Amino acid sequence: MNPVKVGICGLGTVGGGTFNVLKRNAEEIARRAGRGIEVAQIAARRPNPKCETGSTPITADIFDVANNPEIDVVIELIGGYTLAHELVLKAIENGKHVVTANKALIAVHGNEIFAKAREKGVIVAFEAAVAGGIPVIKAIREGLAANRINWLAGIINGTGNFILTEMREKGRAFADVLKEAQALGYAEADPTFDVEGIDAAHKLTILASIAFGIPLQFDKAYTEGITQLTTADVNYAEALGYRIKHLGVARRTDKGIELRVHPTLIPADRLIANVNGVMNAVMVNGDAAGSTLFYGAGAGMEPTASSVVADLVDVVRATTADPENRVPHLAFQPDSLSDHPILPIDACESAYYLRIQAKDHPGVLAQVATILSERGINIESIMQMEVEEHDGLVPMILVTHRVLESRIIEAIAALEALDDVVGNVVRIRVEQLN
Ligand code: HSE
After folding, report:
1. Which of 54, 100, 185, 406 is buried most, with the most CB atoms less than 10 Å from its CB?
2. Which annotated residues bind L-homoserine (predicted)?
3. What is the number of domains present in the chain?
């Protein structure tokens, strides 16, 4: 049988890795796919020194690949929302299957892209869009297909995890670690996407859709970054037996779906709390399988290429199946997607870590306890530190039981209004993940 012809658009880190893996493992991949896979064209503005492309035709124009009648599958690895969006729609219009690693594109334009792909009977595969080399899309979409998924929680941004790990282990400053992550090639072109949680929210949006069978709704994801975290909070969390991680959480409740990315305290003895550096991990809790944990490299040249090529193998195998009988893009049949709403953040429920800077007066603790108890907020633990020499204030650290976000917001406003409380109360969500 003739080989399947693919065109790679973008020869950066992931594009170069994809070319190299396809070349190195060509024989093994063909044995799996049932046909050879040939890179028939590459679109790149500049060569990649880590990638020996030999006689493969190269064009500077990505649309040459989308319009090339020889090409069966377009691999979109240019990133971003605009050109990539046009490229993918053009490839679909021309009847080509698409493999992409572009989380922003799928999270924001995925509903439109999948509708067009269904019209044309082509596949759009996106395993590499979430958590790099971890095959978590396939695990949720196919491996856990028997389950009603209750919740999932993931460390899905390597740059953010690297920063938090270095801050905790070496006491390094935020900006310094970010610079190193950029130099290592992990950070997004705009690193605010990493540290403000936007990149994680793109990935969480995709995971929530395939876990719960809902349309992609990136605009409803709540996002809070890690830029405001201090070493003091990292250390207090540690003293209480927790680690701070930048977590994406999606949870199904009767009222709707929680979809939120924010710094989170996790008990230090959970496996996921020990996922360090640029590594990613996703925990998925289903009613039949219980909790499962998927761990691995969330970014990088060959880990991400591993997912791109796995998608390619799936596409090659699926081309022999009737389009109606393929695995649906969002795991559930398109006419069976649910309209269970995404909850606004103040309707979400969590436990909270609070740090209050108080004057060293008798009765302050009693006032704090009264404010919380009046709002039905149950305290799990409390720790009062020694007076800080530099400002004469006493840090009070509290961990609450689970409560509605709107209640904690109200309590924080009341705490900040106390004469004996100075400055803003620091609040970080806490998840037990059990
Ligand atoms: N900037 C992303 C990260 C790359 O740090 O995880 C992989 O999506």
Report:
1. 100
2. 188
3. 3
